[in-house]
Amino acid sequence: MTAPPDLLVIGGGITGQAAALAAADRGAKVEIVDFGRNAGSAANAGSLHVQMQSRFLRLNPHLADNLESSLPLYLSAVTAWEALDVRLGGVELTREGGLMLAETPAQMAFLEQKAERETAKGLDVEILGQNALRRIAPYLGAEIIGGELCRNEGKLNPLLANNRMSDALTAAGVVIHRDRIDEIVDGPVPEAHGARAYRAKRLLVAAAWGAGSMLRTVGLTIPTEPEPLHMNITEAGAYEIHHLVQHAERSITLKQFRSGQVVIGGGWPATRGAGDSVPGVRLRSLAGNVALAGRIAPGITGLRVLRTWAGYNTPVDGKATIGPVHPTSGVFLALPGDAGYTLGPIVGQTAAALALGWEPPLDPEPYAPTRWAAAA
Ligand SMILES: Cc1cc2nc3c(=O)[nH]c(=O)nc-3n(C[C@H](O)[C@H](O)[C@H](O)COP(=O)(O)OP(=O)(O)OC[C@H]3O[C@@H](n4cnc5c(N)ncnc54)[C@H](O)[C@@H]3O)c2cc1C
């Protein structure tokens, strides 16, 4: 019988991949087992979020404290992405800041309060009036009366990042199994059971929407309900939108890749797929999302939408879950808890370090899974 790997990562999205790569780079023997379906990482828009997203605050006011207390994690996350950008050989990462826009005085007041809270957590934010905003973002429409600039934010090209990550994992010798895990068994050499059994010195669960059901088998109840979301990308136009653009009250993220293509998303709903099938797009989301984008940045209205798609986000409770199921467990969790493409690398790297007994890149205590054990 061959020796079990040091680490078996369940879930091969950005979180699991970053965990696996960090462990393999330090000499660990690593395997990934991934179902190969519905990874949010394969559907995402490449926004590097840091400021609190108005959409999350609007839809989940009861989870606002979780989001706010996580702001230091977001700051670490963009630093982790900058290092990963170098490690992967460039993923078109830029950090020219993110704008959250207002069209009414009430929205400006909301942004002013939000900016105060974010400044207290160490974010580099500033409220801009209409003229100051126009100077840095001349592409904005006439209805925009001001906004919040968060200089920590940025964007990257997720297609490039995912391809480069896949190449890096292969080069680092990480073995990838295509399987669906139904059950995990904790113990000195924990096991994961799918079409076959996998053993490893440590298990790391980074399965996003798939984590909840498998964690019930080790006594944790975590709500990893998938949230089906809509996305669009246009043909290429002149490269003018350098910021990540959001709105104080409406659901939107808007940005431009270096190619000039405009990526439009930000939380318009899609339809949940039956069973394990992919989520379906809604015409109303396609039309509403691009119409709003055209009002915000009128210069893009002549561009045709080339592709539209839907994918699963896994917001959990708006706060990451990182660490062992219990202090002596061999099973570790890496769940970003919203904005998971931004948070995935830092969450995965921290969880991998804890699983392998290395110094983690940040204090994981605020994100410990014990809050779920207490809830159960
Ligand atoms: C349309 C859309 C746009 C988004 N845009 C952004 C953005 O711009 N910026 C941002 O920060 N975030 C964004 N997100 C959120 C982000 O994509 C996800 O939160 C993030 O990718 C989660 O990464 P992950 O690796 O934790 O999980 P995922 O990428 O979802 O990967 C989980 C993997 O686990 C596998 N799996 C599940 N169950 C099992 C099982 N039982 N056994 C084995 N494998 C299993 C799945 O098949 C999948 O491959 C967006 C999400 C969507 C849907």
Describe what is shown at a glance.
The protein is an alpha/beta fold and 376 residues long.
* Major sheet: 8 strands, mixed
Number of strands: 19
Overall shape: it is globular
If you average the pLDDT, what whole number results? 96
Number of domains: 2
Helix count, DSSP H or I runs of 4 or more residues: 11
Strand content: 15-25%
- Straight-line N-to-C gap: 37 Å
Helix content: 25-40%
Q: What gyration radius follows from the Cα positions, in whole Å?
A: 20 Å
Name the CATH homologous superfamily of the largest domain. FAD/NAD(P)-binding domain
What ligands can be seen in this structure? flavin-adenine dinucleotide
| Category by helix and strand content | alpha/beta
Fill in the CATH topology of the largest domain: FAD/NAD(P)-binding domain
CATH class label of the largest domain: Alpha Beta
